[in-house]
Amino acid sequence: MSAIENYHAHVYYDADTRAAALALCEAAGKTFGIKVGRMHDNPVGPHPRGSCQLTIGLGEFDKVIPWLVLNRNGLTVFTHAQTGHALKDHTDHVIWLGPSETLKLSAFR
Q1: E strands, 1-109, in order
Q2: Over the stretch 8-64, which tens digit does the pLDDT of each residue have?
Q3: How far is residue 23's CA from residue 109's CA, in Å, rounded to a whole number?
Q4: How many CB atoms are located within 10 Å of the residue 86 CB?
Q5: Of 66, 59, 52, nearest to 24 (Cα)?
Q6: Number of domains in the chain
Q7: Is 105 within 8 Å of 94 (Cβ atoms)?
Q8: What's residue 64's pLDDT?
Q9: What is the 8-class DSSP label of residue 59?
Q10: Predicted TM-score of the model (pTM)
């Protein structure tokens, strides 16, 4: 296994939960100083629906993940390690907060 560089947490949303997802991502960025990506209102790459990506450094993981557990307000958050092996990072090195969803793994082929 390769070393973990960082983690990505993808906050999934639909049109009716977009505002809640935006508020969660902005609060995470402000609270922990982590990078907040843009809101993707449509599926991108392997993600089955709209999402916003949070980049979590190794030093913040133990603070950010528990915070997301307590503050996700019913949103699904797909978290994965970044090791440089994209397929494994999205299948073997994952943590789901909320119900898991089916990823479009063909994006890696």
Answers
A1: 6-13, 35-40, 50-56, 77-82, 94-97
A2: 999 999 999 999 999 999 999 999 999 999 999 999 999 999 999 999 999 999 999
A3: 34
A4: 15
A5: 52
A6: 1
A7: no
A8: 98
A9: T
A10: 0.95
Q: Is the dihedral of CA 97, 98, 99, 104 positive or negative?
A: negative
Distance CA 2, CA 91 (A): 15
Backbone angles phi, psi at 33, to 5 degrees: 65, 30
Q: Tell whether 106 is covered by a domain.
A: no
Range of the domain at 64: 6-99
One-letter identity of residue 100: S
- Fill in the DSSP letter of residue 3: P
Residue 34 lies in a domain: yes
Name the nearest CA neighbour of 47 among 104, 7, 87, 90.
104
